[in-house]
C-alpha cells in the first residue's frame, strides 16, 4: 500500500465506528489515545506517560510516530500483546498486558515504538505477507533496542526485544497457520476473560473443529479434481 492510502476516519467500517464511539479518548500532539475500559483515566495517563518517555529521550522517533500513527487504543486483543491495525492506522495494545504490574511505562513506550515502525513500513508500501514477516519483525525489534539504548532504565526493553528476536531465526512462528492457531487460542482466552460461560466456549470449539475438518476435506477434493 502506498503512502496516503491508509484508511481515514471517514472510511471506517461500522464495527470500527461503533467501537471507537464507545471508547473514551483524547488527543496528544494530534494523536488520539483511547480505551474501551470502564475506568479510562488511569489508562490514558499511562499512555501519556509512555509517550512522554519517547518524546523526552528520542524526539526524532517521537515526531515520526506522531506522523505515522493516528491512534493508540487499549482494548482486549485476541492475539499478542499489541498489533498495528492499518485499517484505522492504530497501535492497539492488549488491556491485560497494559495493566499488568510488570508492564512498566518503558515497556509500553517500546510497544508503541514497535507498532509505529510497522505503520511506517506499511506506509512505505511494505505489506505483511507471510514470507516477509520475520524480516519486518526484526526491523521493528531493532528499533525497540535502539530506543532502549536511549532510556535511563531501558534494560527490560532491550532484554525482551532481544529474546523475541530469536523467534525471527525461524519462519515457523510467523506462518499463516501459526497465526491462525494463536488467534483461535487468544480469542478463547479473551472470551473467557470477558466472562463467557464454559458451555458456550466448548460449543464454539466443537463448531470450529467441524468447520476446519470440512475445509480440509473440501481442499483435498479440489486437489483430487
Descriptive tags:
225 residues; five-stranded mixed β-sheet; Zincin-like; 2 domains; alpha/beta; 9 helices; 59% helix
Structure report:
The protein is α/β, with parallel strands linked by helices and 225 residues long. The protein folds into 2 domains: 9-171, Zincin-like (2-Layer Sandwich); 176-224, no CATH class. It is 59% helix and 11% strand. The chain has 9 helices and 5 strands; from the N terminus they run αββααβββαααααα. It has helices spanning 14-21, 40-57, 59-68, 95-99, 105-123, 133-148, 155-165, 176-193, 198-224, and strands at residues 24-28, 31-35, 71-75, 82-85, 90-94. Strands 1-2-3-5-4 form a 5-stranded mixed β-sheet. Strand 4 and strand 5 form a beta hairpin. Helix 2 crosses helix 5 (105-123). The radius of gyration is 19 Å and the shape is globular. The relative contact order is 0.10. Mean pLDDT is 83; it is low at 1-10.
Structural class: alpha/beta
Q: What is the topology, as strand order, of the major beta sheet?
A: 1-2-3-5-4
Q: Percentage of helical residues?
A: 55-70%
Shape by Cα distribution = globular
Main sheet summary: 5 strands, mixed
Task: Point out poorly predicted stretches.
Answer: 1-10
CATH class category name of the largest domain: Alpha Beta
**How many beta-strand segments?**
5
Total helices: the number is: 9
Number of domains: 2
Amino acid at each position: 500500500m502506498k503512502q496516503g492510502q491508509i484508511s481515514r476516519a471517514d472510511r471506517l467500517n461500522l464495527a470500527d465506528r461503533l467501537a471507537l464511539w464507545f471508547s473514551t479518548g483524547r488527543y496528544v500532539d494530534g494523536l488520539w489515545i483511547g480505551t474501551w475500559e470502564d475506568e479510562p483515566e488511569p489508562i490514558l495517563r499511562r499512555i501519556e506517560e509512555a509517550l512522554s518517555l519517547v518524546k523526552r529521550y528520542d524526539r526524532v522517533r517521537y515526531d515520526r510516530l506522531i506522523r505515522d500513527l493516528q491512534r493508540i487504543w487499549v482494548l482486549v486483543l485476541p492475539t499478542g500483546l499489541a498489533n498495528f491495525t492499518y485499517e484505522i492506522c492504530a497501535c492497539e495494545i492488549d488491556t491485560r498486558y497494559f495493566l499488568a504490574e510488570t508492564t512498566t511505562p518503558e515497556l509500553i513506550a517500546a510497544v508503541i515504538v514497535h507498532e509505529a515502525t510497522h505503520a511506517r513500513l506499511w506506509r512505505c508500501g511494505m505489506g505483511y505477507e507471510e514470507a516477509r514477516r520475520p524480516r519486518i519483525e526484526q526491523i521493528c525489534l531493532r528499533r525497540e533496542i535502539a530506543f532502549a539504548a536511549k532510556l535511563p532504565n531501558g534494560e527490560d526493553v532491550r532484554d525482551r526485544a532481544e529474546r523475541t528476536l530469536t523467534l525471527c531465526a525461524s519462519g515457523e512462528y510467523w506462518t499463516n497457520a501459526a497465526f491462525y492457531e494463536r488467534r483461535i487460542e487468544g480469542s478463547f482466552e479473551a472470551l473467557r476473560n470477558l466472562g463467557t460461560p464454559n458451555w458456550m466456549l466448548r460449543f464454539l470449539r466443537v463448531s470450529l473443529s467441524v468447520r476446519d475438518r470440512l475445509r480440509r476435506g473440501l481442499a483435498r477434493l479440489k486437489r483430487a479434481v
